[in-house]
Design goal:
Helix content is 78%, strand content 0%. It is an all-alpha fold and 133 residues long. The longest helix is centred in the middle third of the chain and has 51 residues.
Length: 133
């Protein structure tokens, strides 16, 4: 099969081009999706609760946890959205590879059934749809 009909194979051949940020996001995603992270968060909330007598102003005690959790939530949201986007791209890449293999199989059988050639062409065009958007 000609290489111009195999965009997924070409992108795989380019190798791992992830940035340091992408590697960081992946590592962070692995850490925050584990039970240990939940228990660390739970411990922080417990420490905050027992620290109440140490604060003179109850309002400041509440603002401290709200500010910290808001900032932390914003950062985690950005990291997890990035991880989700990359996961969707990986799933799309897998679908593209399957579609390319199917198109190649259809093209190889086109001599027996001429309808398959048109279907294979349509499938190849569909595989490259996301590249045009």
């Amino acid at each position: 099969m000609e290489e111009e009909h195999r965009p997924a194979a070409q992108s795989r051949a380019a190798g791992d081009q992830r940035s340091a940020f992408d590697r960081f996001v992946e590592a962070a995603h692995l850490k925050v999706s584990r039970p240990a992270f939940f228990f660390v968060c739970l411990a922080i909330v417990a420490l905050w609760l027992v620290s109440m007598p140490l604060w003179v102003d109850l309002k400041a005690w509440q603002v401290a946890i709200h500010t910290a959790t808001s900032v932390y939530t914003l950062l985690l949201l950005a990291l997890l959205e990035n991880a989700g986007r990359r996961s969707e791209e990986a799933a799309q890449e897998k679908l593209n590879v399957i579609a390319e293999a199917l198109a190649a199989l259809m093209a190889s059988r086109a001599a027996e059934d001429p309808k398959l050639e048109k279907a294979a062409k349509t499938l190849r065009e569909a595989v490259s749809l996301e590249e045009r958007h």
